[in-house]
Amino acid sequence: MGVTFEEFSSDTSTRLRAALVAAYGPEVGADAAAEAMAYGFEHWDRVGSMENPAGYLYRVGQTEARRHFRPSGYLPAQAEPGLPAFEPGLAPALESLSEPQRVSVVTVHALGWTLREAAELLDVDVSTVRTHIARAMTKLRTALEVNLDVR
Amino acid sequence: MSDDSNLEQQLAAFGRTLERSTGEPIHSGSGAVPGSPHGVPRRWWAIGGAAAAGVLAIVGLVAVAGRNAQDDVEPASPAMTTSVAAATTPASGTTVTTEAVGADEVPAALGPVPTDPLGLEADAWRLIQRDQLPFDFPADVACPGTDALVELNGAASVRDTLEPPDSTGVDVDVNIIDVGSLDVGNAVADAFLAFGDCVAADIVGGPEVGAMSSVRASWFRVGPEFAIATIVGEGARTIVLEIENGPFADEVIVDLAQRSAAYLGGAPLDSATPGTDAPSTTILLPLLPEDASLAVPDDPLGLEADGWTLRERSERSYSLDGEGGDVECPAVDDRTEFDGSPMVADLISTPDGPEWSGFDSMRLTVIDVGERDRADSMAMLIGESAACWAEFLPTIDPGEYEVVAGGAPELGATWYRVGILIFVVVVGDDGTIVRLDPFGEDDAMLAVSDEMLTDLSLRAARFLADRSRSG
Protein backbone atom coordinates (compact mmCIF):
# COMPACT_ATOMS: atom_id res chain seq x y z
CA MET A 1 0.00 0.00 0.00
CA GLY A 2 1.63 3.18 -1.12
CA VAL A 3 -0.42 5.84 0.62
CA THR A 4 -0.97 6.21 4.32
CA PHE A 5 -4.35 7.17 5.66
CA GLU A 6 -2.93 10.47 6.80
CA GLU A 7 -1.73 11.27 3.31
CA PHE A 8 -5.02 10.16 1.85
CA SER A 9 -6.97 12.16 4.38
CA SER A 10 -5.08 15.37 3.80
CA ASP A 11 -5.82 15.10 0.11
CA THR A 12 -9.34 13.80 0.18
CA SER A 13 -11.25 14.65 3.34
CA THR A 14 -12.10 18.17 2.24
CA ARG A 15 -13.33 17.05 -1.14
CA LEU A 16 -15.35 14.26 0.38
CA ARG A 17 -17.02 16.67 2.78
CA ALA A 18 -17.74 19.10 -0.04
CA ALA A 19 -19.42 16.49 -2.18
CA LEU A 20 -21.54 15.15 0.64
CA VAL A 21 -22.49 18.65 1.73
CA ALA A 22 -23.54 19.34 -1.84
CA ALA A 23 -25.63 16.20 -1.80
CA TYR A 24 -27.21 16.39 1.63
CA GLY A 25 -26.61 19.88 2.99
CA PRO A 26 -24.12 21.19 5.53
CA GLU A 27 -25.48 19.38 8.55
CA VAL A 28 -26.03 15.86 7.34
CA GLY A 29 -23.31 16.03 4.71
CA ALA A 30 -20.57 17.08 7.11
CA ASP A 31 -21.55 14.39 9.59
CA ALA A 32 -21.64 11.79 6.86
CA ALA A 33 -18.20 12.82 5.68
CA ALA A 34 -16.83 12.48 9.18
CA GLU A 35 -18.36 9.05 9.51
CA ALA A 36 -16.98 8.01 6.15
CA MET A 37 -13.47 9.16 7.02
CA ALA A 38 -13.71 7.40 10.35
CA TYR A 39 -14.67 4.26 8.52
CA GLY A 40 -11.77 4.75 6.18
CA PHE A 41 -9.39 5.11 9.09
CA GLU A 42 -10.67 1.97 10.78
CA HIS A 43 -10.53 -0.09 7.61
CA TRP A 44 -7.60 1.49 5.84
CA ASP A 45 -5.90 -1.83 5.22
CA ARG A 46 -8.75 -2.77 2.93
CA VAL A 47 -9.93 0.62 1.72
CA GLY A 48 -6.44 1.84 0.98
CA SER A 49 -5.87 -0.99 -1.44
CA MET A 50 -8.95 -0.18 -3.45
CA GLU A 51 -8.72 1.36 -6.87
CA ASN A 52 -10.61 4.47 -5.80
CA PRO A 53 -10.72 4.83 -2.03
CA ALA A 54 -12.24 8.30 -2.25
CA GLY A 55 -15.06 7.05 -4.41
CA TYR A 56 -15.67 4.17 -2.06
CA LEU A 57 -15.79 6.41 0.98
CA TYR A 58 -18.18 8.69 -0.85
CA ARG A 59 -20.52 5.71 -1.11
CA VAL A 60 -20.01 5.03 2.55
CA GLY A 61 -20.93 8.63 3.28
CA GLN A 62 -24.03 8.30 1.13
CA THR A 63 -25.11 5.31 3.10
CA GLU A 64 -24.61 7.11 6.36
CA ALA A 65 -26.35 10.26 5.15
CA ARG A 66 -29.43 8.57 3.85
CA ARG A 67 -30.30 7.43 7.34
CA HIS A 68 -30.83 11.01 8.38
CA PHE A 69 -31.62 12.81 5.19
CA ARG A 70 -34.79 14.80 4.83
CA PRO A 71 -35.98 15.77 1.40
CA SER A 72 -36.21 19.54 1.52
CA GLY A 73 -34.73 22.64 3.09
CA TYR A 74 -31.27 21.26 3.67
CA LEU A 75 -29.29 23.68 1.55
CA PRO A 76 -28.70 27.29 2.62
CA ALA A 77 -31.41 29.45 1.10
CA GLN A 78 -29.66 32.77 1.53
CA ALA A 79 -26.16 34.10 1.61
CA GLU A 80 -24.15 34.23 4.76
CA PRO A 81 -23.50 37.80 5.97
CA GLY A 82 -20.75 39.45 4.05
CA LEU A 83 -20.86 37.01 1.17
CA PRO A 84 -22.33 37.61 -2.26
CA ALA A 85 -26.08 37.20 -2.45
CA PHE A 86 -27.71 34.62 -4.65
CA GLU A 87 -31.16 34.00 -5.99
CA PRO A 88 -33.50 32.78 -3.20
CA GLY A 89 -34.90 30.17 -5.50
CA LEU A 90 -31.52 28.65 -6.17
CA ALA A 91 -31.37 26.35 -3.15
CA PRO A 92 -34.83 24.85 -3.72
CA ALA A 93 -33.98 24.46 -7.38
CA LEU A 94 -30.79 22.65 -6.49
CA GLU A 95 -32.67 20.44 -4.08
CA SER A 96 -35.08 19.49 -6.83
CA LEU A 97 -32.26 18.00 -8.87
CA SER A 98 -31.31 14.40 -8.63
CA GLU A 99 -28.45 13.80 -6.27
CA PRO A 100 -25.82 13.12 -8.95
CA GLN A 101 -26.91 16.21 -10.84
CA ARG A 102 -26.79 18.33 -7.70
CA VAL A 103 -23.41 17.10 -6.60
CA SER A 104 -21.97 17.50 -10.06
CA VAL A 105 -23.20 21.02 -10.63
CA VAL A 106 -22.36 22.24 -7.13
CA THR A 107 -18.87 20.82 -7.03
CA VAL A 108 -17.97 22.04 -10.51
CA HIS A 109 -19.84 25.32 -10.78
CA ALA A 110 -20.15 26.38 -7.16
CA LEU A 111 -16.92 25.01 -5.76
CA GLY A 112 -14.71 25.13 -8.79
CA TRP A 113 -13.73 21.52 -9.17
CA THR A 114 -12.70 20.18 -12.52
CA LEU A 115 -14.90 17.59 -14.15
CA ARG A 116 -12.22 15.04 -13.55
CA GLU A 117 -12.10 15.74 -9.84
CA ALA A 118 -15.85 15.40 -9.54
CA ALA A 119 -15.84 12.22 -11.59
CA GLU A 120 -13.15 10.68 -9.45
CA LEU A 121 -14.99 11.28 -6.23
CA LEU A 122 -18.32 10.18 -7.61
CA ASP A 123 -16.59 7.19 -9.13
CA VAL A 124 -18.11 7.79 -12.52
CA ASP A 125 -16.82 8.80 -15.91
CA VAL A 126 -16.13 12.40 -16.80
CA SER A 127 -18.76 12.09 -19.48
CA THR A 128 -21.31 11.14 -16.87
CA VAL A 129 -20.48 14.19 -14.79
CA ARG A 130 -20.73 16.34 -17.86
CA THR A 131 -24.14 14.92 -18.64
CA HIS A 132 -25.32 15.46 -15.09
CA ILE A 133 -24.17 19.06 -15.27
CA ALA A 134 -25.77 19.71 -18.61
CA ARG A 135 -29.08 18.37 -17.39
CA ALA A 136 -28.78 20.18 -14.10
CA MET A 137 -28.07 23.51 -15.74
CA THR A 138 -31.03 23.08 -18.03
CA LYS A 139 -33.29 22.34 -15.09
CA LEU A 140 -31.90 25.23 -13.09
CA ARG A 141 -32.42 27.63 -15.93
CA THR A 142 -35.98 26.44 -16.26
CA ALA A 143 -36.62 26.57 -12.54
CA LEU A 144 -35.18 30.05 -12.23
CA GLU A 145 -36.80 31.19 -15.44
CA VAL A 146 -33.60 32.28 -17.04
CA ASN A 147 -32.47 31.77 -20.55
CA LEU A 148 -28.72 31.71 -20.50
CA ASP A 149 -26.52 30.33 -23.16
CA VAL A 150 -23.64 28.94 -21.20
CA ARG A 151 -21.52 27.96 -24.11
CA MET B 1 -33.81 36.49 -11.72
CA SER B 2 -33.31 38.87 -14.59
CA ASP B 3 -32.27 37.72 -18.00
CA ASP B 4 -28.92 39.38 -17.48
CA SER B 5 -28.12 37.32 -14.45
CA ASN B 6 -25.54 34.66 -14.79
CA LEU B 7 -26.45 31.30 -13.42
CA GLU B 8 -22.84 30.35 -12.94
CA GLN B 9 -22.21 33.45 -10.87
CA GLN B 10 -25.23 32.60 -8.79
CA LEU B 11 -23.83 29.15 -8.23
CA ALA B 12 -20.46 30.56 -7.34
CA ALA B 13 -22.06 32.82 -4.75
CA PHE B 14 -24.00 29.86 -3.44
CA GLY B 15 -20.76 27.93 -3.17
CA ARG B 16 -19.24 30.63 -0.98
CA THR B 17 -22.12 30.39 1.44
CA LEU B 18 -22.12 26.62 1.32
CA GLU B 19 -18.46 26.64 2.16
CA ARG B 20 -18.91 28.90 5.15
CA SER B 21 -21.94 27.00 6.38
CA THR B 22 -19.81 23.95 7.03
CA GLY B 23 -17.47 25.95 9.21
CA GLU B 24 -14.51 24.59 7.29
CA PRO B 25 -13.21 25.18 3.80
CA ILE B 26 -14.62 22.81 1.26
CA HIS B 27 -13.43 24.48 -1.90
CA SER B 28 -10.51 22.26 -2.51
CA GLY B 29 -10.98 21.76 -6.19
CA SER B 30 -8.07 22.59 -8.38
CA GLY B 31 -10.24 23.70 -11.23
CA ALA B 32 -11.27 27.10 -12.40
CA VAL B 33 -12.46 29.73 -10.03
CA PRO B 34 -16.20 29.37 -9.56
CA GLY B 35 -18.10 31.72 -11.76
CA SER B 36 -15.52 31.79 -14.47
CA PRO B 37 -16.78 31.01 -17.95
CA HIS B 38 -16.50 27.26 -17.89
CA GLY B 39 -18.48 27.03 -21.06
CA VAL B 40 -20.16 23.85 -19.99
CA PRO B 41 -21.70 22.42 -23.13
CA ARG B 42 -25.40 22.02 -22.79
CA ARG B 43 -25.46 19.67 -25.71
CA TRP B 44 -25.97 16.16 -24.55
CA TRP B 45 -25.15 14.79 -27.90
CA ALA B 46 -21.63 16.00 -27.61
CA ILE B 47 -21.25 12.87 -25.57
CA GLY B 48 -23.01 10.95 -28.25
CA GLY B 49 -20.55 12.28 -30.74
CA ALA B 50 -17.70 11.26 -28.58
CA ALA B 51 -19.05 7.79 -28.31
CA ALA B 52 -19.80 7.80 -31.97
CA ALA B 53 -16.24 8.55 -32.73
CA GLY B 54 -15.22 5.87 -30.33
CA VAL B 55 -17.31 3.37 -32.16
CA LEU B 56 -15.98 4.64 -35.43
CA ALA B 57 -12.64 3.46 -34.30
CA ILE B 58 -14.07 0.17 -33.18
CA VAL B 59 -15.67 -0.50 -36.53
CA GLY B 60 -12.40 -0.01 -38.22
CA LEU B 61 -12.35 3.60 -39.19
CA VAL B 62 -8.89 4.71 -38.39
CA ALA B 63 -8.99 8.20 -37.11
CA VAL B 64 -6.08 10.49 -36.98
CA ALA B 65 -6.18 12.79 -34.07
CA GLY B 66 -5.46 16.33 -35.01
CA ARG B 67 -5.96 17.85 -31.68
CA ASN B 68 -5.36 17.32 -28.05
CA ALA B 69 -7.87 15.90 -25.66
CA GLN B 70 -9.08 18.48 -23.25
CA ASP B 71 -9.47 17.81 -19.60
CA ASP B 72 -12.12 20.34 -18.99
CA VAL B 73 -14.98 21.96 -20.72
CA GLU B 74 -13.34 24.70 -22.65
CA PRO B 75 -14.35 24.65 -26.28
CA ALA B 76 -11.77 23.78 -28.84
CA SER B 77 -9.71 26.59 -30.15
CA PRO B 78 -10.47 27.35 -33.79
CA ALA B 79 -6.83 26.87 -34.56
CA MET B 80 -7.10 23.30 -33.37
CA THR B 81 -10.02 22.38 -35.53
CA THR B 82 -9.83 19.82 -38.24
CA SER B 83 -11.94 18.84 -41.15
CA VAL B 84 -12.76 15.31 -42.10
CA ALA B 85 -12.29 13.73 -45.44
CA ALA B 86 -12.67 10.14 -46.41
CA ALA B 87 -10.17 7.92 -48.11
CA THR B 88 -9.92 4.23 -48.67
CA THR B 89 -6.98 2.04 -48.02
CA PRO B 90 -6.82 -1.56 -49.14
CA ALA B 91 -5.73 -2.78 -45.75
CA SER B 92 -8.27 -1.26 -43.45
CA GLY B 93 -11.20 -0.14 -45.50
CA THR B 94 -12.40 3.36 -45.04
CA THR B 95 -10.02 5.66 -43.31
CA VAL B 96 -10.83 9.04 -41.92
CA THR B 97 -8.01 11.47 -42.28
CA THR B 98 -7.89 14.94 -40.91
CA GLU B 99 -6.30 18.15 -41.92
CA ALA B 100 -6.16 21.38 -40.06
CA VAL B 101 -8.24 24.22 -41.36
CA GLY B 102 -9.07 27.63 -40.07
CA ALA B 103 -12.45 28.21 -38.54
CA ASP B 104 -13.44 30.66 -41.23
CA GLU B 105 -12.91 28.04 -43.90
CA VAL B 106 -15.34 25.58 -42.45
CA PRO B 107 -18.66 26.91 -43.67
CA ALA B 108 -17.37 26.95 -47.21
CA ALA B 109 -16.53 23.29 -46.97
CA LEU B 110 -20.13 22.47 -46.22
CA GLY B 111 -21.59 24.75 -48.79
CA PRO B 112 -24.76 26.73 -48.45
CA VAL B 113 -27.51 25.48 -46.24
CA PRO B 114 -30.87 27.13 -46.83
CA THR B 115 -32.81 28.77 -44.12
CA ASP B 116 -35.26 26.30 -42.63
CA PRO B 117 -33.99 23.25 -44.52
CA LEU B 118 -36.58 20.98 -42.98
CA GLY B 119 -39.54 23.22 -43.75
CA LEU B 120 -40.48 23.60 -40.13
CA GLU B 121 -41.31 27.29 -40.09
CA ALA B 122 -44.47 26.63 -42.04
CA ASP B 123 -45.62 24.62 -39.06
CA ALA B 124 -44.79 27.46 -36.70
CA TRP B 125 -41.50 26.15 -35.46
CA ARG B 126 -39.15 28.93 -34.46
CA LEU B 127 -35.46 29.13 -35.25
CA ILE B 128 -33.68 30.05 -32.05
CA GLN B 129 -30.13 30.08 -33.26
CA ARG B 130 -27.97 29.06 -36.19
CA ASP B 131 -24.35 28.18 -35.64
CA GLN B 132 -21.91 27.68 -38.47
CA LEU B 133 -19.01 26.23 -36.63
CA PRO B 134 -16.77 23.25 -36.87
CA PHE B 135 -18.37 20.20 -35.43
CA ASP B 136 -17.30 20.40 -31.81
CA PHE B 137 -17.41 17.22 -29.84
CA PRO B 138 -15.45 17.78 -26.68
CA ALA B 139 -12.57 15.42 -26.97
CA ASP B 140 -12.52 14.03 -23.50
CA VAL B 141 -16.03 12.75 -23.34
CA ALA B 142 -16.51 9.18 -24.25
CA CYS B 143 -19.14 6.75 -23.26
CA PRO B 144 -17.87 4.05 -20.97
CA GLY B 145 -16.72 1.16 -23.03
CA THR B 146 -15.26 3.35 -25.70
CA ASP B 147 -11.87 4.89 -25.39
CA ALA B 148 -11.38 6.59 -28.70
CA LEU B 149 -11.24 10.31 -29.03
CA VAL B 150 -13.57 12.39 -31.04
CA GLU B 151 -12.40 12.42 -34.56
CA LEU B 152 -15.23 14.13 -36.28
CA ASN B 153 -14.30 17.32 -34.53
CA GLY B 154 -13.83 20.09 -36.97
CA ALA B 155 -16.06 18.73 -39.67
CA ALA B 156 -17.97 21.50 -41.32
CA SER B 157 -21.43 21.83 -39.87
CA VAL B 158 -24.44 24.01 -39.54
CA ARG B 159 -26.49 23.67 -36.42
CA ASP B 160 -29.98 25.06 -36.16
CA THR B 161 -31.62 25.14 -32.77
CA LEU B 162 -35.38 25.12 -33.07
CA GLU B 163 -38.36 25.25 -30.82
CA PRO B 164 -41.70 23.64 -31.62
CA PRO B 165 -44.81 25.78 -31.60
CA ASP B 166 -46.38 24.32 -28.52
CA SER B 167 -43.70 25.69 -26.19
CA THR B 168 -43.47 22.45 -24.32
CA GLY B 169 -39.82 22.99 -23.70
CA VAL B 170 -38.73 20.49 -26.32
CA ASP B 171 -35.52 21.65 -27.90
CA VAL B 172 -34.37 20.36 -31.27
CA ASP B 173 -30.98 20.73 -32.83
CA VAL B 174 -30.69 20.02 -36.52
CA ASN B 175 -27.03 19.38 -37.22
CA ILE B 176 -26.08 19.22 -40.86
CA ILE B 177 -22.57 17.91 -41.12
CA ASP B 178 -20.16 17.34 -43.92
CA VAL B 179 -18.75 14.00 -42.88
CA GLY B 180 -16.85 13.50 -46.10
CA SER B 181 -18.54 10.57 -47.72
CA LEU B 182 -21.47 8.23 -47.67
CA ASP B 183 -19.32 5.57 -46.03
CA VAL B 184 -18.47 7.82 -43.17
CA GLY B 185 -22.09 8.87 -42.85
CA ASN B 186 -23.15 5.26 -42.56
CA ALA B 187 -20.46 4.67 -39.98
CA VAL B 188 -21.70 7.65 -38.01
CA ALA B 189 -25.20 6.20 -38.04
CA ASP B 190 -23.86 2.86 -36.83
CA ALA B 191 -21.90 4.60 -34.17
CA PHE B 192 -24.85 6.46 -32.80
CA LEU B 193 -26.89 3.30 -32.59
CA ALA B 194 -24.06 1.61 -30.75
CA PHE B 195 -23.87 4.65 -28.56
CA GLY B 196 -27.44 4.00 -27.56
CA ASP B 197 -26.38 0.76 -25.95
CA CYS B 198 -23.38 2.39 -24.40
CA VAL B 199 -25.20 5.31 -22.86
CA ALA B 200 -27.96 3.05 -21.70
CA ALA B 201 -25.47 1.12 -19.66
CA ASP B 202 -23.83 4.18 -18.24
CA ILE B 203 -26.46 6.81 -17.80
CA VAL B 204 -30.03 5.77 -18.17
CA GLY B 205 -32.24 2.94 -19.18
CA GLY B 206 -33.06 2.07 -22.70
CA PRO B 207 -32.35 2.60 -25.42
CA GLU B 208 -35.44 2.53 -27.51
CA VAL B 209 -34.51 2.17 -31.11
CA GLY B 210 -36.36 2.75 -34.30
CA ALA B 211 -35.41 3.01 -37.90
CA MET B 212 -36.89 3.53 -41.33
CA SER B 213 -36.23 2.07 -44.69
CA SER B 214 -35.58 3.78 -48.01
CA VAL B 215 -33.17 6.23 -46.49
CA ARG B 216 -30.60 5.47 -43.90
CA ALA B 217 -32.51 6.98 -41.02
CA SER B 218 -32.24 5.65 -37.53
CA TRP B 219 -33.01 6.99 -34.16
CA PHE B 220 -32.84 6.03 -30.59
CA ARG B 221 -34.41 7.38 -27.50
CA VAL B 222 -32.81 7.13 -24.11
CA GLY B 223 -35.35 7.86 -21.45
CA PRO B 224 -38.21 10.24 -21.96
CA GLU B 225 -36.12 13.36 -22.47
CA PHE B 226 -33.55 12.56 -25.10
CA ALA B 227 -33.46 11.18 -28.59
CA ILE B 228 -30.92 11.25 -31.35
CA ALA B 229 -31.56 10.49 -34.98
CA THR B 230 -29.07 10.18 -37.79
CA ILE B 231 -30.05 10.58 -41.40
CA VAL B 232 -27.44 9.78 -43.99
CA GLY B 233 -27.59 11.42 -47.37
CA GLU B 234 -26.26 10.03 -50.58
CA GLY B 235 -23.56 12.66 -50.61
CA ALA B 236 -21.21 13.82 -47.95
CA ARG B 237 -23.87 15.31 -45.76
CA THR B 238 -25.37 13.69 -42.75
CA ILE B 239 -27.95 15.11 -40.42
CA VAL B 240 -27.90 14.38 -36.75
CA LEU B 241 -30.99 15.40 -34.87
CA GLU B 242 -30.78 15.98 -31.18
CA ILE B 243 -34.10 16.22 -29.42
CA GLU B 244 -34.15 16.92 -25.74
CA ASN B 245 -36.15 18.34 -22.88
CA GLY B 246 -38.98 15.90 -23.45
CA PRO B 247 -41.20 14.09 -23.00
CA PHE B 248 -42.07 13.94 -26.65
CA ALA B 249 -43.66 11.36 -28.85
CA ASP B 250 -41.91 8.95 -31.16
CA GLU B 251 -43.84 10.59 -33.96
CA VAL B 252 -41.90 13.79 -33.40
CA ILE B 253 -38.66 11.96 -34.04
CA VAL B 254 -40.01 10.23 -37.10
CA ASP B 255 -41.42 13.43 -38.57
CA LEU B 256 -38.15 15.28 -38.17
CA ALA B 257 -36.23 12.34 -39.59
CA GLN B 258 -38.50 12.26 -42.61
CA ARG B 259 -38.04 15.95 -43.21
CA SER B 260 -34.30 15.53 -42.90
CA ALA B 261 -34.31 12.68 -45.38
CA ALA B 262 -36.30 14.78 -47.80
CA TYR B 263 -33.80 17.59 -47.50
CA LEU B 264 -30.90 15.27 -48.10
CA GLY B 265 -32.57 14.04 -51.24
CA GLY B 266 -33.48 10.58 -50.21
CA ALA B 267 -36.48 8.74 -51.46
CA PRO B 268 -39.66 9.38 -49.55
CA LEU B 269 -39.89 7.33 -46.44
CA ASP B 270 -42.50 4.68 -46.78
CA SER B 271 -42.94 3.99 -43.13
CA ALA B 272 -43.87 6.53 -40.58
CA THR B 273 -44.53 4.06 -37.86
CA PRO B 274 -42.06 4.31 -35.04
CA GLY B 275 -39.84 1.36 -34.73
CA THR B 276 -41.13 -0.55 -37.72
CA ASP B 277 -39.44 -1.89 -40.79
CA ALA B 278 -36.09 -1.90 -39.16
CA PRO B 279 -33.49 -4.48 -38.33
CA SER B 280 -33.61 -3.50 -34.69
CA THR B 281 -36.92 -2.28 -33.42
CA THR B 282 -36.99 -2.87 -29.73
CA ILE B 283 -39.44 -0.55 -28.12
CA LEU B 284 -38.65 -0.53 -24.47
CA LEU B 285 -40.35 2.60 -23.32
CA PRO B 286 -43.98 3.37 -23.91
CA LEU B 287 -44.78 7.00 -24.37
CA LEU B 288 -45.28 8.90 -21.22
CA PRO B 289 -48.71 10.33 -20.67
CA GLU B 290 -48.89 13.81 -22.08
CA ASP B 291 -50.63 14.90 -18.93
CA ALA B 292 -48.00 14.21 -16.34
CA SER B 293 -50.31 14.78 -13.43
CA LEU B 294 -51.41 11.94 -11.20
CA ALA B 295 -54.57 12.19 -9.18
CA VAL B 296 -54.08 10.82 -5.69
CA PRO B 297 -56.63 11.39 -2.95
CA ASP B 298 -55.69 12.73 0.43
CA ASP B 299 -54.62 10.01 2.79
CA PRO B 300 -54.75 7.20 0.21
CA LEU B 301 -53.96 4.50 2.75
CA GLY B 302 -56.41 5.66 5.40
CA LEU B 303 -53.71 6.37 7.92
CA GLU B 304 -55.04 9.61 9.39
CA ALA B 305 -57.69 7.74 11.30
CA ASP B 306 -54.86 6.07 13.16
CA GLY B 307 -53.18 9.35 14.01
CA TRP B 308 -50.74 9.70 11.14
CA THR B 309 -50.15 13.25 9.95
CA LEU B 310 -49.37 14.48 6.48
CA ARG B 311 -46.32 16.70 6.72
CA GLU B 312 -45.67 17.51 3.07
CA ARG B 313 -47.00 16.57 -0.35
CA SER B 314 -45.17 17.12 -3.58
CA GLU B 315 -46.14 16.30 -7.13
CA ARG B 316 -43.33 15.79 -9.54
CA SER B 317 -41.75 13.37 -11.92
CA TYR B 318 -40.18 10.25 -10.56
CA SER B 319 -36.45 10.07 -10.34
CA LEU B 320 -34.76 6.98 -9.05
CA ASP B 321 -32.06 8.99 -7.43
CA GLY B 322 -34.16 11.88 -6.33
CA GLU B 323 -37.11 12.16 -4.05
CA GLY B 324 -38.75 8.81 -3.81
CA GLY B 325 -35.57 7.19 -4.92
CA ASP B 326 -34.12 5.97 -1.70
CA VAL B 327 -33.66 2.50 -3.06
CA GLU B 328 -30.66 3.46 -5.10
CA CYS B 329 -27.56 1.48 -4.46
CA PRO B 330 -24.17 1.71 -6.08
CA ALA B 331 -24.85 -1.30 -8.26
CA VAL B 332 -28.17 -0.11 -9.57
CA ASP B 333 -28.23 3.64 -9.30
CA ASP B 334 -27.86 4.25 -13.00
CA ARG B 335 -31.07 2.48 -13.87
CA THR B 336 -33.42 5.32 -14.40
CA GLU B 337 -35.77 3.89 -16.93
CA PHE B 338 -38.68 5.13 -14.91
CA ASP B 339 -37.46 8.69 -14.84
CA GLY B 340 -40.16 11.14 -15.69
CA SER B 341 -43.10 9.05 -14.58
CA PRO B 342 -45.74 11.13 -12.78
CA MET B 343 -45.41 10.81 -9.04
CA VAL B 344 -47.08 12.10 -5.90
CA ALA B 345 -44.97 11.94 -2.76
CA ASP B 346 -46.35 12.35 0.74
CA LEU B 347 -44.09 12.70 3.72
CA ILE B 348 -46.12 11.63 6.72
CA SER B 349 -45.40 11.48 10.41
CA THR B 350 -46.26 8.47 12.46
CA PRO B 351 -48.49 8.86 15.49
CA ASP B 352 -47.33 8.61 19.02
CA GLY B 353 -47.85 5.25 20.54
CA PRO B 354 -46.11 1.97 20.87
CA GLU B 355 -47.82 0.34 17.94
CA TRP B 356 -46.06 2.70 15.53
CA SER B 357 -42.96 3.32 17.52
CA GLY B 358 -40.75 1.70 14.97
CA PHE B 359 -40.20 4.77 12.88
CA ASP B 360 -40.92 8.45 13.04
CA SER B 361 -41.93 9.23 9.48
CA MET B 362 -42.55 7.59 6.18
CA ARG B 363 -42.47 8.66 2.58
CA LEU B 364 -45.38 7.38 0.54
CA THR B 365 -44.96 7.66 -3.19
CA VAL B 366 -47.56 6.86 -5.78
CA ILE B 367 -46.02 6.46 -9.21
CA ASP B 368 -47.73 5.89 -12.52
CA VAL B 369 -45.28 4.00 -14.69
CA GLY B 370 -47.84 3.35 -17.39
CA GLU B 371 -48.55 -0.36 -17.42
CA ARG B 372 -48.51 -3.43 -15.25
CA ASP B 373 -45.43 -4.98 -16.85
CA ARG B 374 -43.40 -1.90 -16.17
CA ALA B 375 -44.73 -1.72 -12.66
CA ASP B 376 -43.62 -5.29 -12.08
CA SER B 377 -40.21 -4.38 -13.45
CA MET B 378 -39.94 -1.55 -11.02
CA ALA B 379 -40.90 -3.78 -8.14
CA MET B 380 -38.15 -6.17 -9.21
CA LEU B 381 -35.73 -3.28 -9.29
CA ILE B 382 -36.58 -2.41 -5.74
CA GLY B 383 -36.00 -5.99 -4.75
CA GLU B 384 -32.64 -5.93 -6.48
CA SER B 385 -31.81 -2.75 -4.67
CA ALA B 386 -32.58 -4.39 -1.38
CA ALA B 387 -30.20 -7.19 -2.27
CA CYS B 388 -27.65 -4.65 -3.30
CA TRP B 389 -27.86 -2.87 0.02
CA ALA B 390 -27.54 -6.16 1.82
CA GLU B 391 -24.11 -6.49 0.26
CA PHE B 392 -23.21 -2.88 0.78
CA LEU B 393 -24.33 -2.12 4.29
CA PRO B 394 -21.76 -4.33 6.00
CA THR B 395 -19.14 -1.92 4.77
CA ILE B 396 -20.54 0.56 7.24
CA ASP B 397 -21.59 -1.60 10.08
CA PRO B 398 -20.61 -5.21 9.72
CA GLY B 399 -23.32 -7.44 10.97
CA GLU B 400 -26.15 -9.56 9.87
CA TYR B 401 -27.62 -7.84 6.87
CA GLU B 402 -29.72 -10.08 4.79
CA VAL B 403 -32.84 -9.44 2.81
CA VAL B 404 -36.01 -10.47 4.58
CA ALA B 405 -39.11 -10.28 2.44
CA GLY B 406 -42.76 -10.56 3.25
CA GLY B 407 -46.17 -9.21 2.41
CA ALA B 408 -48.92 -10.54 0.24
CA PRO B 409 -47.38 -11.69 -3.03
CA GLU B 410 -50.76 -12.65 -4.46
CA LEU B 411 -51.68 -8.98 -4.26
CA GLY B 412 -48.41 -7.71 -5.67
CA ALA B 413 -47.56 -6.35 -2.25
CA THR B 414 -44.04 -7.00 -1.05
CA TRP B 415 -41.85 -5.58 1.62
CA TYR B 416 -38.13 -5.95 2.08
CA ARG B 417 -36.11 -5.47 5.19
CA VAL B 418 -32.35 -5.09 5.10
CA GLY B 419 -31.26 -4.29 8.59
CA ILE B 420 -32.35 -0.73 9.24
CA LEU B 421 -33.59 -0.27 5.69
CA ILE B 422 -37.16 -1.06 4.81
CA PHE B 423 -38.82 -0.93 1.42
CA VAL B 424 -42.45 -1.63 0.71
CA VAL B 425 -43.67 -1.83 -2.84
CA VAL B 426 -47.16 -2.60 -4.09
CA VAL B 427 -48.05 -2.95 -7.75
CA GLY B 428 -51.43 -2.08 -9.20
CA ASP B 429 -52.96 -3.59 -12.30
CA ASP B 430 -53.17 -0.18 -13.93
CA GLY B 431 -49.43 0.39 -13.76
CA THR B 432 -49.53 2.47 -10.62
CA ILE B 433 -47.14 1.69 -7.82
CA VAL B 434 -47.17 2.59 -4.17
CA ARG B 435 -43.83 2.68 -2.45
CA LEU B 436 -43.31 3.21 1.22
CA ASP B 437 -39.98 4.25 2.66
CA PRO B 438 -39.99 4.49 6.46
CA PHE B 439 -37.41 6.54 8.32
CA GLY B 440 -36.32 6.38 11.91
CA GLU B 441 -33.50 5.88 14.30
CA ASP B 442 -31.51 2.74 13.75
CA ASP B 443 -32.68 0.80 16.77
CA ALA B 444 -36.27 1.73 16.16
CA MET B 445 -36.10 0.69 12.55
CA LEU B 446 -34.85 -2.69 13.60
CA ALA B 447 -37.87 -2.97 15.88
CA VAL B 448 -40.44 -2.44 13.15
CA SER B 449 -42.60 -5.52 13.12
CA ASP B 450 -43.37 -7.70 10.16
CA GLU B 451 -47.05 -7.28 10.96
CA MET B 452 -46.76 -3.53 10.65
CA LEU B 453 -45.15 -3.81 7.25
CA THR B 454 -47.74 -6.28 6.06
CA ASP B 455 -50.52 -4.02 7.28
CA LEU B 456 -49.09 -1.10 5.35
CA SER B 457 -48.63 -3.13 2.20
CA LEU B 458 -52.21 -4.42 2.39
CA ARG B 459 -53.53 -0.89 2.81
CA ALA B 460 -51.63 0.07 -0.32
CA ALA B 461 -52.95 -2.96 -2.19
CA ARG B 462 -56.51 -2.01 -1.28
CA PHE B 463 -55.93 1.54 -2.48
CA LEU B 464 -54.56 0.36 -5.80
CA ALA B 465 -57.33 -2.17 -6.28
CA ASP B 466 -59.93 0.53 -5.70
CA ARG B 467 -58.09 2.77 -8.09
CA SER B 468 -58.09 0.14 -10.82
CA ARG B 469 -61.77 -0.61 -10.33
CA SER B 470 -62.68 3.03 -10.56
CA GLY B 471 -60.73 3.35 -13.79
Task: Walk me through the structure.
The complex is a heterodimer of chains A (151) and B (471). In chain A, helix 1 packs parallel to helix 3 (53-66), helix 5 (99-110) packs antiparallel against helix 6 and helix 5 (99-110) crosses helix 7 (126-143). Chain A is globular and about 50 Å long. Chain A has 151 residues and is mainly α. Chain A has helices at residues 5-42, 44-47, 53-66, 90-95, 99-110, 115-122, 126-143. Chain A is built from 7 helices and no strands. Mean pLDDT of chain A is 81; it is low at 147-151. With 471 residues, chain B is an alpha+beta fold. Chain B has 8 helices and 17 strands. In chain B, helix 2 (45-58) packs across helix 4. The radius of gyration of chain B is 26 Å and the shape is elongated. The two termini of chain B are 43 Å apart. Classes of the chains: A mainly alpha (151), B alpha+beta (471).
N-to-C CA distance of chain A: 43 Å
The major sheet of chain B is characterized as: 7 strands, antiparallel
Give the CA-based shape of chain A: globular
Structural class of chain B: alpha+beta
| Mean pLDDT, all residues of chain B | 62
Q: Determine the oligomeric state from the structure.
A: heterodimer
- The structure class of chain A reads mainly alpha
Strands in their spatial order, largest beta sheet of chain B? 4-5-6-10-9-8-7
